């Protein structure tokens, strides 16, 4: 069967032609064997013609925009799917199935379009002789640098299946920590949102009704009522400006946090928030210790492991501290001394790091450090609701008290005056 194709050469120039093959996959392989990257392959007879758009033409531009829009609409690859990929790769490689066949099978079986497209590209790169880690590195939004580095070490040491097993265990622990943090912060977030909505509804719709009633009586109102009426008047008259300020502040904060200096300050402030900040800090130290242990256990060099782990903690302030540790080691310090200067760890954890360095079991001791922090984080998360609940109840009680004093006190005064009259 004849197939017409459009492909790009190594310089990026668009080429077209035709090949004879049994099916589309065989046609694509024949095209790649010529050093071309297929863009489109269509079945067609001798008389079939493919109209190739000129580079930079309106049709090609439209096709590019369509492909970009289609890519944006495709679902992202979440942590669950990455764990499934690592688990499946461990099972397949441990069973002795060749990498090329394993990647091809996973590309056909996955339900996520973005993951499927990435695995097909990795498959084509493997066919051209590239390594698995090099193929995964081309898709940074799907496969983090930590995953690529451990796969690279597994390829070089002949222990690829162990590398995928380590990755699956690490990612499962990471997922479990994230779920616990989300579950613990869901209740206070819901209460705060409900309070904000109630404040807007009361000030815009409820209190103005009482304000009209109070205005008919020429009497002096108590301070709580005056405060409520002033707040309500501000909300009613300036709610469009308040809405613009809230939206502008939200996007302004997002832009500020997207800048390196802004993100550094924001991430450092998050760790200083009462109650929640200490939990976040211990959670990130657990993530650092576990990922560092996995990297060292896989055979990644110490300084390279620190660079990769600095990105894995997902906190700019802590990333800076970890990179400072790496620079201290590069200047000649050992790990324990550099970690002590960073002031990231408790004395107990520092003792474990020193013992691990002396015995050559630093990866094992770091795993125990991670478990220590994870136990502390788990306990704090379980008690977080109980610790925040009194503060939430106090805030609600103050709001209800002001509302009651502001609305019911003048009504009682007016009722007393009416009965007295």
Automatic annotation (TrEMBL):
It is found in: Cell inner membrane. The keyword Cell membrane applies. Keywords: Cell inner membrane, Cell membrane, Membrane, Transmembrane, Transmembrane helix. It is a multi-pass membrane protein. Its main location: membrane. GO terms for biological process: protein secretion by the type II secretion system. Residues 42-61 are annotated as: Disordered. The chain crosses the membrane at residues 187-211, 238-257, 391-412. Residues 85-208, 288-410 form the Type II secretion system protein GspF domain. The keyword Transmembrane helix applies. GO terms for cellular component: plasma membrane. Belongs to the GSP F family. This is MSHA biogenesis protein MshG. It comes from Idiomarina aquatica. The lineage of its organism: Bacteria, Pseudomonadati, Pseudomonadota, Gammaproteobacteria, Alteromonadales.
């Amino acid at each position: 069967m004849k197939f017409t194709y459009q492909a790009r050469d190594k310089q990026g120039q668009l080429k077209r032609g035709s090949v004879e093959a049994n099916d589309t996959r065989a046609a694509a392989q024949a095209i790649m064997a010529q050093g071309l990257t297929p863009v489109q392959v269509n079945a067609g007879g001798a008389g079939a013609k493919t109209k190739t758009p000129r580079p930079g033409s309106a049709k090609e531009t439209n096709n590019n925009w369509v492909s970009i829009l289609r890519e944006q609409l495709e679902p992202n690859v979440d942590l669950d799917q990455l764990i499934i990929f690592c688990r499946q790769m461990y099972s397949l490689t441990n069973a002795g199935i060749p990498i090329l066949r394993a990647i091809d099978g996973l590309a056909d079986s996955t339900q996520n379009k973005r993951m499927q497209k990435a695995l097909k590209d990795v498959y084509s790169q493997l066919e051209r002789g590239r390594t698995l880690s090099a193929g995964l590195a081309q898709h940074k939004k799907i496969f983090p640098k930590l995953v690529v580095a451990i796969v690279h070490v597994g390829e070089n040491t002949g222990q690829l299946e162990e590398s995928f097993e380590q990755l699956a265990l690490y990612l499962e622990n990471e997922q479990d920590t994230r779920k616990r943090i989300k579950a613990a912060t869901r209740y206070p977030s819901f209460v705060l949102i409900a309070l904000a909505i109630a404040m807007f509804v009361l000030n815009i719709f409820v209190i103005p009704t009482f304000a009209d009633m109070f205005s008919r009586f020429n009497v002096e109102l108590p301070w709580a009522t005056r405060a409520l009426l002033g707040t309500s008047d501000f909300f009613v008259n300036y709610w469009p400006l308040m809405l613009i300020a809230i939206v502008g502040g939200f996007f302004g904060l997002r832009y500020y946090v997207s800048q390196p200096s802004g993100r550094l300050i924001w991430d450092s402030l998050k760790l200083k928030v009462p109650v929640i900040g200490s939990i976040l800090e211990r959670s990130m130290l657990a993530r650092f210790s576990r990922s560092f242990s996995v990297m060292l256990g896989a055979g990644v060099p110490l300084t390279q492991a620190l660079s990769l782990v600095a990105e894995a903690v997902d906190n700019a302030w802590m990333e800076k501290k970890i990179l400072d540790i790496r620079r201290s080691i590069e200047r000649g310090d050992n790990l324990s001394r550099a970690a002590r200067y960073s002031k990231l760890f408790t004395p107990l954890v520092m003792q474990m790091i020193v013992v691990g360095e002396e015995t050559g079991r630093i990866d094992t001791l770091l795993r125990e450090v991670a478990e220590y922090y994870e136990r502390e984080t788990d306990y704090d998360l379980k008690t977080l609701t109980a610790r925040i609940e009194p503060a939430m109840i106090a805030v609600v009680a103050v709001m209800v008290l002001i509302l009651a004093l502001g609305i019911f006190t003048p009504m009682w005064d007016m009722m007393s005056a009416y009965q007295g009259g």
